[in-house]
Fold these 4 entries.
Entry 1:
Amino acid sequence: MQNNKELTGVLLMTYGSATVPEQVREYFEHIYRGAAPETLVQDFEHRYRMVGRSRLVEITKQQAALLQKQLGKNYVVRAAMRHSAPFTAGAVAECKAAGATKLVGVILSPQYSAFIMGGYRTAFAEAALQNGFLEKDISIARPWPTEKHFIQL
């Protein structure tokens, strides 16, 4: 703990992404739990080769670093992906190792789906409890698809 204040972990959570074509199969195998359709894998490998790579993970890490700077020393901010590294469980473990006693999750997806959001919530809560956080000390920000600042963009 720093300055006798509680340290709060903040996870910026997104779906994740293969970064380069060589990671597409592993990414889809994680999503499809080992049963990714071969045609889908091949199609996305082809698309990744045409585009070069995905910057989703890199951009989310940059957002986490900027939020860390803005929030200051009483917070530890990490990027957390559902289906690629850095995985949610690892990000939670990093927050705990840094001394966080509270944990807040922010799902970056602006669209709302109970099914998809439920997956984030489950991964977040399971990782938090496995790392010794108490249920009362974890929370997830509310969905924000109707946030006026988002709509104005």
Entry 2:
Amino acid sequence: MPNNTALQNLTLRQKASILVRHPWFNKTIITLIVINAITLGIETSHNIMEEVGTSLRMVDRFILTVFVIEILLRIYAEGWRFFKNPWNIFDFFVVGVALLPAYEIFSIFRTLRILRALRIVSTIPSMRRVVAGLLRALPGISSIIVLMLLIFYVAAVMATKLFGEGSPEKFGTLGETMYTLFQVMTLEGWSEDVVRPLMEIYPYAWLYFVVFILVTSFALL
């Protein structure tokens, strides 16, 4: 931090740049993000909103005002370089969504206010590194997704041909079969809801689903 004499010789933009990079400035923004995330969660309770809804909305507007001032300061300090950083664009979008008018046409966007809680990711360097690592892993993840889709498609065609006549509500079409197989892969009620009723018609149907679960689980891992 420059001393008082050096600070007086700086331009207004340089002073703004020092301010937005100051540790206490970042800590204050992080604190407000956490508080705002909590208040937005509390707003989902109708009982609490009936009692302190006005106060919560005032807190939300105050925090939003601080966020807007912060974004404007950062734009002023960095100029057009601000928009070269993807994290800055994310912050700009999240704060900008909250400024949309409260018309019905914008109601969906208004629900995105909770995205402000994700600003903590762009504020904390260690979290940014984690996200960067995930993004670098996307090529490998995309290959896994393609492999899973291929397995699903082959399995769905087989299941539709094997079980379509006996259980048309679950295996009548390719789309219905893929949805059923997705339920089976998640192991959510696959035995009682899918396989056991099917085994009354096709006694060896369990063999197909056991192999399917083993293959998809191995591919996912």
Entry 3:
Amino acid sequence: MKILILSVSAGAGHVRAAQAVESAMRERHPGVEIRNIDAMDYVPAPFRRLYTRGYVSMVNSAPALWGYLYELAEHSSARANRFAAAMQRLQAPRLFRFIKQFAPDRIVCTHFFLPQILASSLKNGSWTIPLDVVVTDYDIHAVWIEPGVSRYYVAREALAYRLKSRGIPAEKIRVTGIPIHPDFLRKIDRSSVMKEMQLEEGKPVLLMMSGGLGMGPLVRSVEAISNLPHPLQIISVAGRNADLKAGIDAIRPANGCRIVSLGYANNMPELLTVADIVASKPGGLTTSECLARGVALVAVSPIPGQEERNADYLMENGAGLKAANTEDLEYKVLTLLGEPERLRQMRDNAARIARPRAAWDIADGVIADASRAVAPSP
């Protein structure tokens, strides 16, 4: 049996979701042949730069415009959607050739790119390989929805309801949560991590992140929080943005606050184990990882669209707060530090709505569906 997992490197979350499914699948189904690729490696370089760098540039410099386009695409005409899908399909002949050559029994994708470029083939039945879609936010946008998709894996029941209301049969939908790496299920000794990172027991730890690509006003936020009149320790994660990390390294807190400055971090289970509060952009994967570790998340300046809706989900369930700017972040952090019972309740709420086994559940579902499809007829 062969499974192809496809992601798109426009933001780090889609890739991390694909890696989580791959890891779970290799762990639970070692006999399956798996390929996990970035679809952007199979399209022309100009289109790749426009698709990936264009997204990062827009959400950094013009988030309101991104929010407008997000809402416009949600309600745009079918003709406009068909035009966008056709434009993307024309950029992907190498991707189609690779799929034909690998000949997978099933495809799993963690980005709406593939359902869009296959839209016409899915509709007329000329595409015969079953296509599973893993939605990586706590809301679902219209661009994810294609009737020809074989299976949808979604974060929560509300998304299943929305899919059904748009004509997707209930039997095609599974509510699993968003896939995070199986390492988040490991038991980690908090004291050992605190000692390794030279952090003091009994002093609150705030984990401040800017996403894998290093977006947002992290330097300004860390500097402001590090000077609050409260004993505090900060772990800063700047992602792959070297300039951002250099800016963090240059901060000299006036009150002796300890700052642990990191670039791209591949030990998120450990970091979330020691964190009392997380301040971060609320991407779908980041949100799910915080929930899995039962950590309260302060959503910092969420991008209009998917991130705002992720933040709304946290607040609806009492598992997080939203900070519109640096001053608001200072106030929210001070409030939580001054109300330990409220912080404890938020952590309990986070653990209550977590679905840390999502990657395993998706892996098992994909393999079960594929096994039924390839089983010989009696």
Entry 4:
Amino acid sequence: MKLLTIVLLYVFSLTVSGQDYFLSKKKLLKDYREYISILKDKHAGVYRYNTKHEFKNFTDSLRHEITDSISVYEFYKIISLVNAKLGCGHSKVDSPKDWIENDVLPPFSLYSSQGKYFVWHDLSIQGLNLENKEILSINGILINSIIEEIKSYIPADGYIDTGKKQNTEKLFPLYFAKYYSRNTENILSYKDDDESDCSVILQSQNINSLIERSKTLYPVNNSIISTSNELNYYYLKINSFFMDTVEFKNRIDSIFNIIVKESPKNLIIDLRENSGGKIVNEYYLLSYLIKNKIETLIKREYKINKKKFQEDTNVLGIIFPKNVYFFKNIYFIMDGLTYSAAGEFLSIAKHYQLGTFIGEETGAANDGCNAGKKSYTLKYSRFVFNVPDYKYTFEGTSSAKGRGIFPDYPVTYTKKDMISNTDVALNIINQLINGQISAK
């Protein structure tokens, strides 16, 4: 009870930094109505996963929460709830940069296993060795409750939760400050190695400090494309399809020239954390994986006005093979951060049964997405938001509306896997190749 009292006293004395300023109710309502009006008129997917009635009821209910007593930060969260309601991962509302450039980001990221949350990267300056410690609460609020609230503000395609989960955990400092609270200090309650309950006051940091500490403590390979030639397979990791098209094609050509010479029976294409990119790049990679020409089965429409769409006929609808196909098996690895063009790539691959899928449900909806980069700025709050004006519809979907591409072999990670840095997906593929798991 003594610890609880200390926690409560501490929470009430927290210092919040950043521009926690106020505008009149009148100005906030004008911004809110302008935002809703632009969504209805310009957003290609505003009613993709909502009926007009549902969307109106939702936005009307939030409008009543706008009063003279709410700060612009709280108003940002209201706008973000509407943005998340769209079911469009390409929709975004930017918060002012100084909200995260100040010392308001908690210095740790998370991972979860079996309903519990653990410290993934410890970026604190106090040298507390918090890695893999189970988090119980922050400022007296249960971590599960905090995570669920943050997820409600994060945009995602359709009804998919995997991307929200991955983003909330891996980018916890950013999303905690954007959508939950911007504190200069936070009290963290956790279980120590001997299962005893502990607590510590953590100093928040600014985003530049966290980025630099992360680069130092947890260096990563930032290559867009990486490869390795193993005993049983050739491994191809594509982190993005955003690369310059000429450069991407040259790189893929050189890789497959090597693959043709080596003639491996098994090819692994890893698209985990691939957030998408250029359509022409995804199609080019597909051309190396098919035996015959295929139709992409994707309808692309441009929103002209509130009621009308016009089909875009300028996008290539057929992919021709490179005529080098010789693989016995192709394995695709994916996760909740596999998104946009990477998800579109997998939708096509899944429909044409090009291989076996390992991982978790993609963050990209199997039935397609919205895209486009038209930006608008609200007059008083100065929030900048983008409105996708293209609607892509995949006509060969294998999933329910608003769900991602599902794996043939789902992957989950235990705490032990995370500590040992075990790649469970690759382990499953090795077992499939060696006949230790029966193919589905």
